[in-house]
Structures are given as C-alpha cells and as structure tokens.
Automatic annotation (TrEMBL):
The keyword Disulfide bond applies. The record marks 2 as: Deprotonates C-terminal active site Cys. This is Thioredoxin domain-containing protein. Disulfide bonds join 8-11.
Amino acid sequence: MDFTVAWCGPCRFISPFLADLAKKLPNVTFPKVDINELKSIATNWAVEAMTTFMFIKEGNMVDKVVGAKTDELRQTHG
C-alpha cells in the first residue's frame, strides 16, 4: 500500500516509479491510499510520515519503507 497525500512532493516524485514497477510486476497489487480521504485506514496502519509504503501479504504487514526511496523499494518487493 502506498500511503500518500496530493500535496506531498516526495509522493508525486515516486509516482512514475511505482507505475513502472506495477507494469513489471503484474501479479502484485499496488493500492494507493490518500490519507486525507481515508484517515481511518492510515490510523489503523499507524502511518506517521509521507510517503509510506507497506508490503502486505495475507492481511499482515511484511515490510515497510518510509520515504521516496526507490532503491529500498526495488530491494523490498523481492
């Protein structure tokens, strides 16, 4: 899950990278959560910074990257 907000510069910076990654990994879902619109979801997942990426498998968080860190995201998606 990509936790984002419209005004976030790093969120906008990373968006093309995520679109490209989604094309390369068609078997992976890349949901985007705007925390201004879905505050309860961000609260439930204890999101504290933008942009935050959580890797969820079978309903459980298996990894997390905070910030527009393309290298970490490349390594994490595994």
